[in-house]
Request: fold
Amino acid sequence: MKITADANCYLTEVADVSLDERSFRSMVIADSPEDAARWRQITAEEKASLEAQQAIFENQDITPEYLGKVDTLLAGIKKSINGVEMSDEEVIKNKSFYPTWDDAVGNDLQQGFKFSCDGSMYEVLVPHHATEDMRPTSIMALSAASETENKVEYYRNIGG
Reply:
C-alpha cells in the first residue's frame, strides 16, 4: 500500500520517536494496515518545528549551565512576547510564554498587553496601573454582579 503526503506536507512516525531518529518522507510503502497506521501527515511548518527542536537539543547535555541558558531564553521571551502579533488561538497555544498576573502587578499596563491569570489569558483594554485588587477574575466577577451603567472593562478574556 502506497501512502503519499499532500503538497507541502510530510509523513512521519505516529509513535513518540526521539527527534534524532524521526524520519520525514514524502511517500511510504506499507506492508499492512498496521504498518500504514504507524505514519501520520504533518505540514512543512510542523516539520520545521520538529527540526528546530532537534537542533536545540542535539549534542546538549542537560546541565545546570544549560538550564541557566534556557531560563535566560525564556525570561527574554516573556519580556518581548507582547510585541509579537498573534491571533487569539496562537496566544492561547503559547500562553506558557506570556507574563503572569503576578508579573504584571505593580506595573503600568498598556492597551494590548496580554498575560495569564488563573488558567486563562487576558488582554488589557484600558491602560492602568496593576494592583492586587485589580486581578481580572475579581474585577470581572464584581462587574458582572454590578448593575451600574458606568462599568469600566479593564480586560478582555481571551480564553485558555
